[in-house]
Design goal:
Layout: E1 14-16, E2 27-36, E3 40-46, H1 58-64, E4 68-76, E5 80-85, H2 97-114, E6 119-124, E7 131-135, H3 141-150, H4 159-167, E8 172-179, H5 185-197, E9 199-206, H6 210-213, E10 222-224, E11 231-233, H7 237-262, E12 265-268, H8 276-286, E13 290-292
Parallel strand pairs: 5-6, 5-8, 8-9, 9-12
Antiparallel strand pairs: 1-13, 2-4, 3-4, 6-7, 10-11
């Protein structure tokens, strides 16, 4: 897949929005539910032998005669997982859906790692074993980009089984799934349920090409499925175009509605590759997925 490395520096001034407290074990600058060392006071507890005496509130001891230890909210990082569909259908389009997904994935990884939010990358769905890579800070960004550039969409594997095996049983703070979801309804439902169960704040970035959104079927007599090789014969191109658009809108609305029910944030990638900057700085900011350093989204 292709990644424009020169565009990534532009996104360093953004950071991923945290809808709730961070749960990663890595220290960072996000509020977390954990108590310990930090700058924001949380509560008192009774002194236990071995506690750092510098945490004792001596003013309370002088007033009340109680030895109490100050507790603070620990600051942690968000845990991020970026899951990219690399089945054969993602190789379609001009530019290819896989290349646009790779560029958005690299942009999200850049935004996360600049602020020490650890990232796990998973490429799944092809006829080859899934590929996984991790980075805990920006030093690991080069390896993530290398993995994205090395993987090519091919074939079709059991996407649910592959992804479930890579995600494990825990829930990450933010999980992004980049896929065209061109699979059977049962398989799509499995993927969406897995996405909802694997993250506190999951996001689906639906990736479709311009030809899929508005195909020219006037002179087309048959369509071939990129993954199965199945051929669909069209009897009347004009009637087929109208029926296609009706079915497409119904399909998109069904996916968006199912995501809403499952608590998944649904966004559609622009079909043109040159829309990357506008998508990240515009669409993702308005959707409260990313924000400026000051925390604004306007």
């Amino acid at each position: 897949m292709k990644v424009d490395r020169t565009a990534l520096a532009r996104f360093a001034e953004l950071r991923l929005h945290a809808p709730s407290v961070a749960t990663s074990l890595q220290q960072g600058d996000r509020r977390s539910p954990f108590l310990g060392r930090g700058v924001e006071f949380a509560d008192y507890r009774e002194y236990d032998p071995g506690d750092d005496i510098r945490l004792i509130d001596w003013n309370v001891y002088l007033r009340l005669g109680q030895v109490l230890v100050r507790q603070f909210n620990e600051e942690r990082s968000l845990s991020i997982k970026l899951c990219v569909d690399v089945s054969a259908s993602m190789g379609c389009g001009d530019p290819r859906k896989a290349d646009r997904a790779a560029e958005v994935t690299a942009a999200l990884a850049t935004i996360a790692l600049v602020h020490r939010d650890p990232v796990t990358l998973v490429c799944f769905g092809s006829d080859r074993p899934p590929v996984r890579a991790k980075a805990v800070n920006f030093d690991g960004m080069a390896e993530l980009v290398h993995v994205l550039e090395r993987v090519e969409p091919s074939g079709r594997g059991d996407a649910y089984k592959q992804l479930a095996g890579q995600l494990g049983g825990g829930r990450t703070d933010r999980l992004f799934l980049l896929s065209d979801l061109l699979c059977e309804p049962e398989a799509r439902e499995q993927l969406l349920r897995l996405l909802a169960a694997s993250s506190l704040h999951p996001v689906l970035l639906h990736t479709l090409s311009a030809d899929e959104l508005e195909p020219d079927l006037r002179d087309v007599s048959e369509i071939v499925d990129a993954e199965t090789g199945e051929t669909l014969v069209l009897r009347d191109g004009a009637d087929a175009a109208a029926a296609y658009q009706e079915g497409l809108q119904r399909w998109l609305e069904e996916i968006a509605a199912r995501c809403k029910t499952l608590g998944i944030q649904y966004l559609r990638l622009p079909p043109q590759g040159e829309g990357l900057i506008g998508f990240v700085e515009g669409d993702l900011r308005r959707a409260h997925v990313v924000e400026t350093m000051a925390g604004g989204n306007q």
